[in-house]
Write a structure and sequence with these properties.
- The chain is α+β, with helices and mostly antiparallel strands.
- It folds into three domains: about 1-55; about 55-245, no CATH class; about 250-320, no CATH class.
- About 35% of the residues lie in helices and about 30% in strands.
- It contains nine helices and 14 strands.
- It has helices at about 1-15, 15-55, 70-80, 115-120, 135-140, 210-215, 235-245, 275-285, 315-320; strands at about 60-65, 70, 85-95, 105-110, 130-135, 150-155, 175-185, 205, 220, 225, 250-255, 260-265, 290-300, 305-315.
- It has a six-stranded mixed barrel with strand order 3-4-8-5-7-6. It has a two-stranded antiparallel ribbon with strand order 2-9.
- Strand 13 and strand 14 form a beta hairpin.
- It is elongated.
- The N and C termini lie far apart (about 120 Å).
Amino acid sequence: MPGILRIIVRSTKFYKKPVLYQVLIIVLLSAVITGSLLTGRSVKESLKKSASEHLGSTGILISSGIRYFDYDLVQRLKDSTGMKCTGILEMKGYCQSLTSQKAVFNTNIYGIKSDFFIFHGFDTISVKHGEVAINKRLADYLGIKPGEDLIIKFKEISEIPSDAPFAPSQDQGKSLVLKVGSIIESNGGGNFSLSISQIAPMNIFINLSDLEEAHVSHFKINRLLIKNDNINSLQKTSETLKHYLKLPDIGLRLRFVNKTGGYELISGRVFIDESIVKEISSRMTSSAPILTYLGNRLNAGTRSTPYSFVSACLLHFTRKLLPATG
């Protein structure tokens, strides 16, 4: 053993430069690898913290996009299944402080009820009637404090698609002036966001009752948040919705037609999606789609009438409605 050590020492002295370079390379590579591992861990923890601040207790999100449904669905799911969930109305808008006159475009506006912050585990936070809560980033940017007034403007909510020819004008909107009731920190649910972004959002939380009084929404929502736990799964949630979903939840209404003795299914959006039409047609073979639209004018010879409704329907369906002629 001493002989081997002596050989190692003599070899090291003889090849001292190459040995020194190798040691330096090993040290440098070790430092790079260690730094990468530490950085990766730090980034991972940062992303987890950011996701936790944004989503809170949200495990499953059901979004209706730019469509809206009644808050009753949330209450039915709670009462019938015990599912922990809440509903929100998510919009984009503009806000301005009356004190500092600073403004922010593309602000996140959330119409909520009293159970929103409770759902996320913050029982002491609430948004009172006639007030709004904003997150700290928005408050710092506007230089606004609790008790000061905030101007909020956003597009008017409508069931009719914006690209429809009879849709409300795009210039129309709603404006509210409400007091800032509280400023919410990031660790208190203030940075709630459903978008994929690492940038801290600028949020406004409004009581849904204030939106209803402003004739904006009759407790209409477009997002359903379900608790992040081991009880709820995508498959179970899907089956639950199939069982408890009602026609008004997807903007449809069934009514009896006295003249035909049948029923008609109509949509608050005027048009019914093709996927829904196909689903109904496959389940009810006696049904048929009808398109009714407003015509500018009907002419017959020298006579004409303006603004009449014109309906287009399938031939086999009209034969069932009209008596056969010889």
